[in-house]
Input
Amino acid sequence: MSDYHPLTRKQHEIYQFLVNHYQQSESAPTLSEICIGLGLKSRGSLHKHIQHLVEAGLVEPSNRQQRGIRLTTPKLSTAIDLSTDETIPYLGKIAAGQPLEVMANFSRITIPTQLKTKNECYVLQVTGDSMIDLGIYDNDWVIIEKRNYAKNGDVIAALVNNDEVTLKIIEQTPNKTILIPANKSMQPMHFDPNNVQIQGILVGQMRSYIH
Amino acid sequence: MSDYHPLTRKQHEIYQFLVNHYQQSESAPTLSEICIGLGLKSRGSLHKHIQHLVEAGLVEPSNRQQRGIRLTTPKLSTAIDLSTDETIPYLGKIAAGQPLEVMANFSRITIPTQLKTKNECYVLQVTGDSMIDLGIYDNDWVIIEKRNYAKNGDVIAALVNNDEVTLKIIEQTPNKTILIPANKSMQPMHFDPNNVQIQGILVGQMRSYIH
DNA sequence: AAAGCTTGTTCTCTATTTGTTCTTATTATA
DNA sequence: TATAATAAGAACAAATAGAGAACAAGCTTT
Output
């Protein structure tokens, strides 16, 4: 009965989001919430991906039930986390098309005090290899201190062209902003300062080696 | 008995209101009071929501009794008493000359659940560049699951020659143990298996960029 | 005890949200 | 070039949400 259903990259990404969400919140997310969390705009396409997760046996079929997405292996779904104040918002994958604030309070993550500042911080998950020369890899988490300014050489999360959020090294001159990847095989990108909105600066990084 | 009853956004909001109310007041709120508290105008609609909470097993059925809304005791107790300890021992710099146990319980560190396993874990701080090709840098923290065995290719913390603890990739043959640094400019080291005591395997990594 | 009020409950009607299905277009990948 | 993966959006039905009317049972006041 069980065919072999390898996950595509996107399906794996969505599954990770679901696992993560279940660790933080007791109720399942809505399709729209997942869209926002992953930077998608169409519930329709997302639904198709989730159908694949059902076929792969990772997600139980949810018959029109709202918030009906359940993982088949209900790992930590019961582990409610209402612990102290050392949690900070997890804003999902580095998200396209949205200033980060819009999805605050979706879920929260526990953080060692050593990895954050006294100011407001949040967590993003990194996609891509643009920072490997700094030891930040695909799927790592980064802790960002919320801020709208930075000094040259800082690693920042920025909204570029009102379109996508990236993690880069910043160099600013009066009439030009340069975003430099920490990856020798990638080129710095030049922007009009008006098209680069700084969202915060890098203060910490985490990586899981589990499975 | 228990079907799956995910809470909708409104139901969750109402349940939160009830939990909150119970922490401050001994008697249950009236439907109208909840309406006022949540900005609703119809007791009728509210009642329907509470019916769902009853079906979900979070609220006891109250047959026409005024101020009869009670939370089911089991859920209430778990909601309060979920103080799982998410801290693990910090054993300091990767330490020379000592098996790791001796300095346990010096201090503890808060860890996100995503970075540890269910088993016993502890934190070490890395010195040196022997793992930079895996993105583990000088002064990073690593989370180690306590264990005395590993399979080939695992990244392990090991006590070598009863002298120092290092973080390396392990390759074991019946009569030889090879510890391989993840650093192209360093050479693998060969040992008699008796001189290598595995202390644990790598499950997580953290880095602070503050100052 | 009777009148007046509040409360829980049930019902109908309407508006919004959500899951689902389709169609179409674009990008990767073999 | 062909095939799969990804994405956006339109359209639809079911689930959910809100308002209000109506009613019986419990309180309060007279």
The domain at 87-205 of chain A is CATH 2.10.109.10 (Umud Fragment, subunit A). The first strand of chain A starts at residue 59 and ends at 60. Residues 30-32, 43-44, 47-48, 51, 62-68 of chain A lie near DNA strand C (CB under 10 Å from a C1').
